[in-house]
Write a sequence for this structure.
């Protein structure tokens, strides 16, 4: 019922939704949290594919709920937990501390990126 042209997707226990807006990482995270969720965070291949579906629909890269921790090159979920699933693009992550956020490409692979760029907002609930 809530499928709104694929802008809302269900995957496992999660519901994914996008408002179609492109904003920086902090704004994307804030809008997801204000809506009662957080940034979309793939923890397995199925979730990655569901997020990719929204990325492809808008044909825009999207920020994921993953950030670089204190250790350069080590990425964690927004809540600080270590990643249990990754889908890095070849030769990524390569920012070595300068690229603290993670975006999803339109092929579903990940890239570490600066946090001040405008990327599609996709939230999970």
């Amino acid at each position: 019922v809530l499928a709104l042209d694929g802008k809302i997707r269900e995957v496992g226990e999660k519901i994914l939704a996008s408002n179609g807006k492109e904003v920086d990482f902090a704004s994307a995270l804030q809008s997801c949290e204000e809506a009662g969720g957080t940034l979309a965070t793939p923890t397995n291949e199925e979730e990655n594919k569901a997020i990719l579906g929204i990325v492809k629909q808008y044909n825009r890269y999207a920020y994921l709920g993953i950030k670089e921790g204190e250790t350069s090159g080590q990425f964690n979920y927004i809540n600080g937990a270590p990643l249990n699933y990754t889908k890095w693009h070849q030769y990524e992550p390569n920012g070595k501390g300068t690229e603290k956020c993670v975006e999803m490409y339109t092929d579903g692979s990940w890239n570490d990126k600066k946090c001040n760029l405008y990327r599609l907002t996709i939230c999970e609930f």
The chain has two helices and eight strands. Strands lie at 8-11, 14-23, 38-39, 62-68, 75-77, 101-104, 110-113, 119-124.
